[in-house]
Amino acid sequence: MSDSRILELENVSKVYKTGDVVFKALGDVSLVVERGQWIAIQGPSGSGKSTLLNLIGCLDRPTSGRILLEGVDVSQLDDNRLAEIRGEKIGFIFQMFNLIPSLTVVENIMLPTYFTKKLRKTDAKKRAEEIMKRLGIIHLRDRFPSSLSGGETQRVAIARALINEPSLILADEPTGNLDTATGSEIANLFKDIHDKGETIILVTHDRELALKAEKVYELRDGRLKTGGSHGSVIV
Amino acid sequence: MSSFKLAFRNLKRRKSRNALTIIGITIGIAALIALISLTLGLSAHIDNQFRNLGVDVLVYPVSGKISESSVDTMRGIPGVYAVGPRINFAMTAVEKNFTVPFYAIDPAAEAKIGFLKPLFGGLGMGVNQTVLGFSLAQKLGVSVGDNVTFRNSALKEFNLTVVGILQKSEEIISFTDSFAFVNTQYAENMTNTNSGYSVVLVRCWTSEVSSFVAYQIQSEIPDVSAVSQAQIKNVINSVTGTIDFFLYIVVGLALVIGCLGTANTMAVAVLERRREIGIMKATGAKNRDIMKIFIVESMLFGLLGGALGLTLGYLAGWAVKWYVDNALWFIQFISGYTPIYEWWMLPLGLGIAVFISLIAGVYPAWRASRLKPVETLRYE
């Protein structure tokens, strides 16, 4: 695997079994993502987009195939090692924002540093403040999530995803719960983040957001179809 | 950010439920601390009373009364120094309208036994004269020279002059503090009986021979029960030990209930916060991080419940003393005790509280740590 490849999926499949019922969510998916690349994955509901993102994000293990993240086959790692990789190398952004309601904005942003323990508290706070300034949410630092708008909440979630300077940012429908104007702001924010060199994989139904990605893939019936280049959106 | 901070924040989220959980632990620890202080206090009180105990052998009739000839027999038993026969009866204090227990005694014999120690006046009682126990005199509000009217069971009234008030008794079986005393010679009208004695106090030359004297009395005199100081102490220890045992079982149950309450709260918290567990796992939390967060939260219940329990237990110990001194003042056996608090009760109370909350929290925390992140993130 070349150094420029941050992620490589080799014939990855995921099968769910419930009693006698077998459901193939993903079938033999192969994908290569270069460092600094921004790709979007589209597809109808139930096509396996979130399953794919969960496998890439080490939240789940594939039934077969290999997932190489910076050269490491994560499909073979134990729970603790996967947790370390999630904390250090991956930044998650969810459709439902997923902030901890009992923590303030700055505490939510700093949460991953608490688990990875790679930064001292003062350094983590400093970095969180820098990111908040960059994303225009420094004034929200001591507020609780319940008092934030959808757009503000998603910016906080993005700040949390960036705090540990991950190798890969994964976003699952990041504009799915936002109105058009706010969604557009968040789409521009993703572009800014990508322009700073971050690698982004996002799953979205949002045409405007997908248009900003360098490469767009379509996932249909658990299979990844040919990707289009920048600006060609498959819907 | 620390696990404690996270745990504190979570405690604030479900205030009423968490408060109830803490109260569960508080009650258990408070009961434990109050009970220990009560047990220690009573034990010291009883020990103190026995140290000051003047009587060596108590003789009770198995049925009926003890005859004068039996008392004479006792006087002749080797090792006996003095014999104090008493007649027990009751009269009503007319003015204050409450029942007063009386003993008709032989003042000369009692002086030899040395039980009744006058604080004011003396023991020598003539016709229509009485000596009062310290607490009784206080309750009647009288001093030496005052007259008190009593009415006996035949509704006959006696106007008695107080000629002595006894020292506050620290003795357990002297029955002095709440009693009034009259001279047996002049008590016939009051007691309505002259057929014998209800109890006999025996003083030995040395307390070492008390068990032997008790054995001799029981052997030589039919229909009496003689118990020595050591036997009485054993009986009381056995009774208080049995009471303690049952009280500790109740406290144990209270602690188990507190533990179950915490376990329930933690189990519900894990269910409610599945999504949060998923978020934390997605942001790098390992299984042990999740376990730590929930265990710290559970321990916090223990710390808060323990601290409150210690405070409440301390106050409850004094409340029990207040109740005993005011409402149960006539029970010589427990009246006047002081709860004892030792330094080790602090770590013990906190330690038990934290321990039971830990026990309660381990399984829910373990379950939380084992949750699959992908499943918890799906949880709404």
Textual characterization of the structure:
The complex is a heterodimer of chains A (235) and B (380). In chain A, 34% of the residues lie in helices and 29% in strands. With 235 residues, chain A is α/β, with parallel strands linked by helices. Chain A has a domain at 38-50 and 79-228: P-loop containing nucleotide triphosphate hydrolases (Rossmann fold), CATH 3.40.50. In chain A, helix 3 (105-116) packs parallel to helix 5 (150-162). The mean pLDDT of chain B is 85. At the A-B interface, helix 2 and helix 3 of A face helix 1, helix 9, helix 10 and helix 12 of B.
Per-chain topology:
The complex is a heterodimer of chains A (235) and B (380).
Chain A: E1 5-18, E2 21-34, E3 38-42, H1 49-56, E4 64-69, E5 72-73, H2 79-89, E6 90-93, H3 105-116, H4 121-135, H5 150-162, E7 168-172, H6 180-195, E8 199-203, H7 207-212, E9 215-220, E10 223-228
Chain B: H1 3-13, H2 15-51, E1 57-61, H3 68-75, E2 80-93, E3 98-105, H4 107-113, E4 118-121, E5 129-132, H5 134-140, E6 147-151, E7 157-166, E8 180-183, H6 188-191, E9 199-204, H7 210-220, E10 224-228, H8 229-272, H9 274-282, H10 287-327, H11 345-370, H12 373-378
Parallel strand pairs in B: 3-8, 5-7
Antiparallel strand pairs in B: 1-9, 1-10, 2-3, 2-6, 2-9, 4-7, 5-8, 6-7
Helix pairs in contact in B: 1-10, 2-8, 2-10, 2-11, 8-10, 8-11, 10-11
State the gist of this model.
The complex is a heterodimer of chains A (235) and B (380). With 235 residues, chain A is an alpha/beta fold. Chain A is 34% helix and 29% strand.
Number of helices of chain B: 12
Outline of chain A, from the CA principal axes? Answer: globular
The succession of helices and strands of chain A, N to C, reads: EEEHEEHEHHHEHEHEE
Question: What's the overall average pLDDT of chain A, rounded?
Answer: 87
Strand fraction of chain A equals 25-35%
Overall average pLDDT of chain B: 85
What class would the helix/strand composition of chain A place it in?
alpha/beta
CATH superfamily of the domain at 38-50 and 79-228 in chain A: P-loop containing nucleotide triphosphate hydrolases
Main sheet makeup of chain A: 6 strands, mixed
Pair with the biggest interface: A-B, 29 and 24 residues
- Please give the alpha-carbon distance between the first and last residues of chain A: 31 Å
